[in-house]
Amino acid sequence: QVQLVESGGGLVQAGGSLRLSCAASGRTFSNYAMGWFRQASGKEREFVAVISWSGGRTNYVDSVKGRFTISRDNAKNMVYLQMNSLKPEDTAVYYCAAPKASYSFTVHMDYWGKGPLVTVSS
Question: What is the rounded CA–CA span in Å between residue 105 and residue 122?
């Protein structure tokens, strides 16, 4: 079965940086898009970023454009979210996610990690 395990969360001051990592297993990683979502306390989970199976295409929610970068290493079955210029409103649990369908550049995900907490202090 597909497993997604995130790491890299923690506490950072506003303006700082963090990198989240997600290790995927259970299927041929390079055939699938990967995404990051987040859920702040009391709010619904929201899309953050998605990357295509080859890494050649990405998309971001407007609020993180220019600050966050999603990337992947297909040789290591890893996807990353580099977060720069962090703001207190970025505080949330961040989830790595993947779709069931291969070769589908989509934000509709079927598999989820457990999510590390990212806290940005002001």
Answer: 35
- Residue 33: phi, psi to the nearest 5? -65, 160
Reading the chain (122 residues) residue by residue, the pLDDT tens digits are 999 999 999 999 999 999 999 999 999 999 999 999 999 999 999 999 999 999 999 999 999 999 999 999 999 999 999 999 999 999 999 999 999 999 999 999 999 999 999 999 99
How far apart CA 27 and CA 33 sit, in angstroms, is 12
Q: What is the DSSP string of 28-89?
A: -GGGS-EEEEEE-TTS--EEEEEE-TTSS-EEE-GGGTTTEEEEEETTTTEEEEEE-S--GG
DSSP tag of 27: S
Give the other-Cβ count within 10 Å of 61's Cβ.
Answer: 16
The rounded distance, in Å, linking the Cα atoms of 101 and 92 is 27
